Amino acid sequence: MAWKPTEITDLSGTTAIVTGANSGIGFVEARTLAEHGAHVILAVRNLDAGRAAAARIAGSTAVETLDLASQESVREFAARIDGPVDLLVNNAGVMAPPTRRTTADGYELQFATNHLGHFALTARLLPALLAAPSPRVTTVASVAHHQGDDRVVDGNPPEGYDPRVSYGRTKLANLLFALELHRRATAAGSPLTSTAAHPGVAVTNLVASRDGMGARWIVRTFAPPLMRLVLPGSEGGAEAILYAATAAAAGSYSGPQGPGEVRGKVGPAKLSSLASDPDLARRLWTISEELTGVPFDIWGKDGPESHSGRTPGLTDPPRS
Mapping DSSP to helix (H, G, I), strand (E, B) and coil, where does residue 290 land? Predict the structure, then answer.
């Protein structure tokens, strides 16, 4: 399909939260949503960088501190949000640090940031999301999810740490979460829509970040200019995510349609067999609730009686 962000409808009166919105694809997402009328909350680790980014956006914005590697920061951020929230874009991430790093909570950095942080954030924002008439959660995955394996449920343990595989596991976790959230919302009769998307291979600050691949000086110095010769930048990378956030069908996974899904027009993206495994998704969901200490309550304040077609709730979804 030849979808472009210019096709986004008027978003006036809605509120969107974009994590990692101070630079790269996240900034383009935030700017585009604001240009179409949404009030956008930029959820960022660095408040100064977030404010500088907001100053470059023509539209209604707010900036809030959020460090997804810290469960305390996630809890504090969610407590500051006064709903309703119409759209949550789980965008921020860390990519392939050369050596294994752990967070203050004791989890591997990529697993903590890319998956557990967004899992807990979505759960804690559910009351605000369910206060909106048509809430949507869009989670950013990657073609790298094909490199993940079924040890995704182990949270990237110290034994045999491999930056590429560990990153792939977290992107697989993103997809398992997004698709399981869709299944559970559907089972609960909830108005919540869950979608996923990947940007292809785009040249962004993620490549040069010192938290990830950019920890090696040669990568952060030479990779971005070389990649710009052949790959799209943040504008192109943001298209599939913006489509998933505003127009895609519930439960869909979108991405570029060119060779290798590196670039191209937006369309359905390819899922690995593991990403489509509902049993693995349920295992990861249960483990994620245990590790974060944050249970999901998809029913909302009115309870299950407010939904038609009742089926088992989040802790016991129907098997498929």
Answer: helix
Highest mean pLDDT: which of 25-39, 226-240, 301-315? 25-39
Catalytic residues: 167
18: which 2 tokens?
């974009």
| CB 91, CB 24: distance < 8 Å | no
Per-residue pLDDT tens over the stretch 36-65: 999 999 999 999 999 999 999 999 999 999
pLDDT at 213: 52
In terms of Cα–Cα distance, which of 190, 175, 212, 10 is closest to 90? 175
Place of tokens 């630079």: 23
Question: Tokens 């590790």 appear where?
Answer: 291
Burial of 261 (0-12, 13-18, 19+ CB in 10 A): buried
**Residue whose C-alpha is closest to residue 22's, from 69, 59, 77, 61:** 61
- CA–centroid distance for 294 within its chain: 17
167 neighbors 144 (Cβ within 8 angstroms): yes
The beta strands (E) that lie in 6-66 are given as 15-19, 39-44, 61-65
CATH fold group of domain 11-200+236-306: Rossmann fold (3.40.50)
264 Ramachandran zone, left/alpha/beta (phi>0; psi -120 to 50) = left
84, 170, 77, 193 alpha-carbon torsion, rounded to 10°: 0
What pTM did the predictor assign? 0.86
Q: What is the 3-state secondary structure (H, E, C) of 172-240?
A: HHHHHHHHHHHHHHHHCCCCCEEEEECCCCCCCHHHHCCCCHHHCHHHHHHHHHHHCCCCCCHHHHHHH
- 42, 68, 75, 172 from 53: Cα distances, Å: 9, 19, 24, 29
SS3 label, residue 254: strand
3-state helix, strand, coil split of the chain in percent (to 5) is 45, 10, 45
Q: ∠ at Cα 182 (4, 250), nearest 5°?
A: 30
Domain ranges for the chain: 11-200+236-306
